[in-house]
Amino acid sequence: MGRPMQFEAAEAVDRAMDLFWRQGYAGTTPQELASELGIGKGSLYNTFESKHALFLRALRRYSLKRLEYLAELFSTPGPVRPRLKGAMTVLAGVGEHQRGCVMVNAAAELGPADVDVNRIADELFTQIEAVFRQAIAQGQESGELGADRDAGTAASQLLASVIGLSVLVKTGMASERFRAVVDGIVDGL
Hints:
Number of domains: 1
CATH class: Mainly Alpha
Number of helices: 9
Radius of gyration: 19 Å
Helix content: over 70%
Strand content: under 5%
Number of strands: 0
Mean pLDDT: 91
């Protein structure tokens, strides 16, 4: 019988995600992960198999958190426009850290070399786009947003904007400029 696990796996994945977010995949060593999680390297490998497996779990956890946020945000009644602006702000990674979106960072860092990362990123981006499409259609039906644009095309444009803004946030885009850009994008709907 092995020793009982001395840490909570979900919390460990969250902490690993934060470290990967700060340093990137290549910039994070297994020893740094073990230290961040307060465990030995052996426990890291016994629990998560590999650095890459832990990275994939962190990306899935990030996806889940973002989708839960969007579900909650768009399940409340009220105008769509401010909720779209809020979603774009959070998804682009604006806030306390200004690190951009961890999924955009991962896809940009690993590119086509990592099929698993790209699949997870594509799944998240597809689901975000679907949420945007539904919100835009709702805004069009209520008359809040113009009905002259296809909701699917507008949703794709919002997603592309979020991805681009995420990169700009990471480079230090001023928050006032960011807000002006987001306002212009959403108000243009």
